[in-house]
Amino acid sequence: MSPTYKNVTNQRQILNGKVIDPGQTICTTAYYNENDVKLLKIDDAPHFNPIIFSDVITEKGTVKIPEKDNLGERVVKYAIHFFLERGRVTIHYNSIKNDPPLNLYESAKWNVRCFERVIDTIVINSEENFMLNIIIEKI
């Protein structure tokens, strides 16, 4: 959600079915200076950022999918992006027992979309030196 608007009139405003009382603020990406709605932009923040996790992984272990985004909203739908710069890795979703694993080789790219939090944990294994880039974005 971004930016922040304020109802500076002395009348209720309705934006996308939501009532905004006089003096009330709202964060929304859906406000486009509609003729019948009068809101004043008071801040560019909070800034929208779909990235909820970004890191370069060089050791085997686990990555937990964040439950909330930078605005504190629950993350339900998200995409996981992998790019393996070097080495080979084996990735299991949620549990090491979840076979078959995703096997990535040097220069491999892989994307997966998740709905309803079907993946909570990424388990990363490798027997060699590797460099794995992981980006998780809210969708």
Short description:
This protein has 139 residues and is mainly β. The chain has strands at residues 4-6, 13-15, 18-20, 25-27, 40-43, 51-57, 61-64, 78-86, 88-93, 102-105, 109-114, 121-125, 131-138. The chain starts with a strand and ends with a strand.
Structural commentary:
With 139 residues, the protein is mainly beta. It folds into two domains: 4-43; 51-138, Jelly Rolls (Sandwich), CATH 2.60.120.10. It contains no helices and 13 strands. The relative contact order is 0.23. The mean pLDDT is 90.
Name the beta content range.
Answer: over 45%
Tally of extended strands?
A: 13
What string gives the helices and strands in order? EEEEEEEEEEEEE
- Strands of the biggest beta sheet: in what spatial order? 6-13-8-11
Name given to the CATH homologous superfamily of the largest domain: Jelly Rolls
Number of helices: 0
Terminal CA distance reads 13 Å
CATH class call of the largest domain: Mainly Beta
Structural class: mainly beta
Biggest sheet features:
4 strands, antiparallel
Approximate shape = elongated
List low-confidence stretches: none
Q: State the CATH topology of the largest domain.
A: Jelly Rolls
Jot down its keywords.
about 0% helix; Jelly Rolls; about 140 residues; four-stranded antiparallel sheet; 2 domains; single chain; mainly beta
SSE layout:
Layout: E1 4-6, E2 13-15, E3 18-20, E4 25-27, E5 40-43, E6 51-57, E7 61-64, E8 78-86, E9 88-93, E10 102-105, E11 109-114, E12 121-125, E13 131-138
Antiparallel strand pairs: 1-4, 1-5, 2-3, 6-13, 7-12, 8-11, 8-13, 9-10, 9-12
